[in-house]
Structures are given as structure tokens and as C-alpha cells.
Amino acid sequence: MPRKMFKQEAELKMRELSTASINRLCYVEDTINHLLTYFGVSKQSAKIKLVELGYEEATGTLNYVEGQYVLPYIWKKGAIASNQTYSIGLVDATIQMFINRIFNEVQLYIFMLKLIFV
Fold it and tell me: 74 — phi, psi (to 5°)?
């Protein structure tokens, strides 16, 4: 995927979708789906390329955890590093509740979120 061509197509599609949608996360996901078809690449490749080009919000879209896609999310720019995530599976969350004091304090919240999003 040539960088310049990929960025042009991404910006064109995002501009087009932004006029039809008020939710940036929705049109970032739709842009990824467009780019994977346009360039004949995987979802992961298109998503990674967008992140590399500076579209940090693409990190919070199309995350696959425990056999299903997690709802898209966004955070304050620069809040997490490129090797971090806010997505965690139930097994990992349970382990963290036992070994990490911070997770232990919010275990009820995590349990409730899992029930809502399943």
C-alpha cells in the first residue's frame, strides 16, 4: 500500500462519510472497511496503516477480543502508547483482579461492563 495513495483515499473517504455521520468512530470503521476492499488487504493491515499515518482513533476500532469485536472507543490523544490497549478479555480481567490492586477496586464495574456488552 503506497503511503501517499493510501492517505489520499483515507482522507477522501473520511470526508465523504463525515458529512453523513456525526460519530467519528463509526466513519473510521467504515473507512477501514472501504480501504481493505480498495487495496485488497486485511482489516488489520488497513487499521495499522491508518494508525501509522496518524489516525490514532483507528486504534479503538475493530478490536477483536474473545471471539467478538469490541465496540469502538476513543480516548484523549496521547493517553496510551502504541503498544497499549483498553481492550481486555474476561479471563485476563479476572487474573488482574487477583494480582493488581487497581483492578480489584473496579472489579464490579468490569463485571457489569462484560454483562452489558455480551
Answer: -140, 160
